[in-house]
Write a structure and sequence with these properties.
This protein has 572 residues and is an alpha/beta fold. The chain folds into three domains: 186 residues, 3-Layer(aba) Sandwich (Rossmann fold); 170 residues, Glucose-6-phosphate isomerase like protein, domain 1 (Rossmann fold); 195 residues, Glucose-6-phosphate isomerase like protein, domain 1 (Rossmann fold). It is 47% helix and 15% strand. The protein contains 21 helices and 16 strands. Helix 1 crosses helix 11, helix 5 runs parallel beside helix 9 and helix 5 packs antiparallel against helix 12. The longest helix has 20 residues.
Amino acid sequence: MIDNFSAFLPQDLEAAVRQAAADWDSNNGTARLWKKDASLWTNSDESKWLGWLDIVDEQLASLTRFKALAAEVHEDGFSHVLLLGMGGSSLAPEVFSMTFGPQPGAPKLLVLDSTDPVQIQSFRDKIDPARTLFCVSSKSGTTLEPNIYMQYFYDETRKVVGDQAGHHFVGVTDPGSKLEGVAKQLGFRHVYHGVPSIGGRYSALSDFGLAPQAAMGVDTEKFLHRAKAMVEACKNTPAADNPGVYLGLILGAAAAKLGRDKVTLLCSPSVHDLGAWLEQLLAESTGKIGKGLIPVDREPLTDPANYGNDRVFAYIAYGKENEPDLDEHVKAIEQSGQPVIRIRLNDLYDLGQVMFQWEIATAVAGSVIGIDAFNQPDVEASKIATRDLTTAFEKTGSLPAEEPILDQDGLQLFTDRANEDALKKDGERTLGGLIRAHLDRIKPGDYFALLAYIPMFPEYEAKLEEIRKEILESKQVATVLGFGPRFLHSTGQAYKGGPNSGVFVQITCDEAQDIQVPEQKYTFGIVKAAQARGDFQVLADRRRRALRVHLGKDVDKGVDQLATLISAALAH
């Protein structure tokens, strides 16, 4: 697979990359990267976050525990492994589950990373707790979502198997975390340790990715040996011969020198979920201090004439899949003069290579852009805002009252004072008028974001993708879609801390049903509402162009209504 990486670059980008490569080589960039030299970035604490460079060798040296786990889950007859995590602890396992699929004689891996009660109930309905192994995954051990998932599913499991419930759980966490203490107290079957020097989004090849992968029956040894080939290739000099470094130089130079900061991901159907993992890696690593890469995943295909000059395209193809329509689309994009990166997997076990290549590339791009590629300050801001709201609920039994700027036809609109003034400056006071005024704020070089705090079900995703396509073809800007709260631990960093080029529509709803969190005063619905409000508060604090549309209880009707309003606004 190492040779299956190429790039078509227009002349101006090719020149910028050539200069970036010359600078990188003259400054011994690759050697300094492998020596974990923090001066490649901002010379703060970056050297403490580069443990992922060595993880493949470390995992190959300790394969027996993964083989033992695979044998255990097979012998004990588990039908499902349900991973309970968020962001860096859930996205890589989701890629493995969606890409490799169910393995013969092994349990099916499911991944829960939503506080939406309807979605949680849908997972509960899919499993028999007596035949499910739950994997509670949290680096810090204090992340809200995995902890409340664990409380709920431990309670559900105890109802079925009594005091054997702990034997249905494993933990993945950093050594000495609060979760490790809880796991010992509850009698978890195993605790697997993360590496403190590896942040969540770089943890795919650590135990956070590989313990669930092994449990679902994937050949982890084969996977790691493939990844090892990319690790060695990413030590090559000069930069042009290094698949990770060169990819990073393209991404970094495109954004820093030419304003091409929208990385549009085009993935073959067999590897389509890789985009969700890449979104977090790129956005959370680079989107801060007003700079960064905005990943664009699963955007509907359109005529290349609708693409602006602010994009780089990355085509990740599965070599055994015949995709003539996608191939032709990528050729048309190249012919229109857009930059296109091509990466091909010969088989699915090349996935580890691709992941390591992009980890290197993201770190290098961060160096070129001039940011710390390993912190996530604006994610923390959202967590604090959410915590303040849930604390208020615990004290008073309700979330703080809020007043919509408009309540009409079953929909409510919310925003902060600055956005309200901007939307109403031309005297708009109707639902359609305010939505049109919001969409009229989209300018060339911007991106449009749907932030949906509704169940992540295929039927809703399809409707929201139609909205993306209409915006893309009407406004000719990049479009993104995130389901809350999962995107808070992923692309949310770039939306708040990256370039102020996003126009946001947040979508919330009332809960048709709710689930109490055991041992807590609040429900999952309250947590989700607090997360949405905290998210919006930080967007407003960062002076983002943002509008929240509240649908009420009938999500089907509300999404259709919103789509109709947006269509009408664009046609006006």
